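Protein modeling request. Please complete all fields; requests missing the sequence field cannot be processed.
Requester role: graduate student
Desired output: 3D structure, token encoding
Chains: 1
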Amino acid sequence: MKLSEDPPGEDPLFVIDSYCTLGAERDESLAVETHLANMERLQIAQSLIAPDSRELAVHNQSGNSRISALARKNPDKLVAAFSVNPWRKNTTTLAQQAMDEGGRVLILAPHRQGCLLGDQLWDPLLNGRQRKTSPSMPTPRRPLQEHPANSIF
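Delivered output (153 residues):
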């Protein structure tokens, strides 16, 4: 995508929105249509989209499926992220299912999922097959919510 400010003959600047939550609850209220219109207006080429907070914490499978379906409808614009709560017993199965549906980036959300970022609960996800085929990304937290143990890792 070429930005209007690019000098003639220069390579176009490719802008990627690195994390966006599409949802209908609280501060995560953003419809895919609105997001795509904003991307067009702001000349953003692609966006990594992620499940909302409830889906990150509890409803992993349905959230991952919802996000993957949105990305499949807009494959040139949207990249699907996915998440699995590490307290679940079937973490690797859920992660593999999410990747099979099109999930491309594993989101670690310890502040939503009730554990520390350096906790061994993440080991099955990070040491398993998913680590080889999908990058992982810890989500940022607001400073007021920060726990010192999470910022060390």
